[in-house]
Amino acid sequence: MVVWYRTYESQCGVSDASSTTSSKTFVACKVCGDKASGYHYGVTSCEGCKGFFRRSIQKQIEYRCLRDGKCLVIRLNRNRCQYCRFKKCLAVGMSRDSVRYGRVPKKSREAGACAEEMNVCVNSTTPTPVSQLSSSTNSSSNQSSCGGGGVGGTPTPPSMPVISASNSNNNNNNNSISNNNNNNNNGNSTGLSLEPAMTNCAEISTSTAAIVGTILPDSMTFSPPELSIYDIIQCVAQAHRGHCTYTTELVKELNRVSLLSLFRQLIYQSLDTVEDQRVWLWQQYALRMTPSVQRIVEFAKRVPGFGEFLQDDQLILIKLGFFDVWLSHAAKAATEHALTFDDGVYVSRQQLEVIYDVDYANALFSFVSGLNACGLSDTEIGLYSALILLSDRPGLTETKLILRTRECIAEALRVQITRSRSNGAAVGSSAAAALQIMPALEAKIHELRMLGDKHFAHLEWFRQNWSSIRLPPLFAEIFDVPKCEEDLQ
Fold this sequence. Notes:
mainly alpha; Erythroid Transcription Factor GATA-1, Chain A; Retinoid X Receptor; 2 domains; three-stranded mixed beta sheet; 5% strand; elongated; disordered N terminus; nuclear receptor activity; zinc; transcription regulation
């Protein structure tokens, strides 16, 4: 079997090509994840980031980013976008005023090395807080990219953020970061309208092909064989946290409210038949699912290796895998009696039985219960989502390339599960736990595929009666529901 990745030297350490020291003492740079050389400017960081920060504040350089300040900063691409790298330095706490005197005893340093690296591996993937941006930015656009960006001297378009190193002496909350883009980014690449009213055919410009059409330039430009397991885990985890609205933290903050409680008067006054109620419930169901389409597209673009697939293959993977990925995310907020959307509105089991049927509702809640029983963390859910996304689908061309990429993601998930369950446990027992969970998760993917296929089949009635219903255009596009006469040709 061809090895497409570099594995960890231990459960808590990451091997590094330039390092000959034991993984026991490996401490990651909080900026880029490379091996830290010490405590510089108030933060555990590597020599590269230390020097970069020093040069930035000494020369008071003004950086620019071509991607609205959303570039991912990791060891492999930290030099691509100086704006995002400097912003990350400030975000993790670097400051010229933060000078540490004295040395850390070796014993204390080694004792905290494993915990420090674990913390950086997972927590450094948290997106930059919106509060650091001076202009308003849509919450779903507060994301990270694995691509590069511009540097100083590049002409600044209207949407290009600028960061100056001249004010970096202040605390992070006072960083001088500005964004010249005053436009709302909400749906700018999709044209998505969440209004339930049907739009005229000529006004519908949204299509899945249009969304995926920009994937190749924005996606990862390096493939899994060039990445270590650590890099894959970090990149996918950051993409998941930046684009998923069902993370543990966000789910805890949900204020749950019943769908019927929002529209009770409408339900009782306007919907006379069960069929009318079914159509209305489908419309509400689709309305709240649709915003996740763009988020999952953005997540897919940041999965290592996805950008190397043929564009037609990317389109197939997203269209046929969207519902599967979405349900794996939404399971986090689901209970045995209700499925909750990311806005807190939930549909009950009884309502899902009306939307689908009793058997499908039972199968859906069975999947949700089984997945939640695995106790996956946000990072593991992100890797699992990537695994689901890269499943074999009919119509794919480069199946071998996709399979190799999927194997890398699967190994990253196995390593992450082993590491997360190694705290206080023997290495053998944590590895055994991973061996037990992985087959269960693979089985869940087959279960999920069946749910996705049946979900698609349940929409057949809407395909036959498209002219008399109102579904969000992007939802209709993903699930091949005609929106106008041209779609039938």
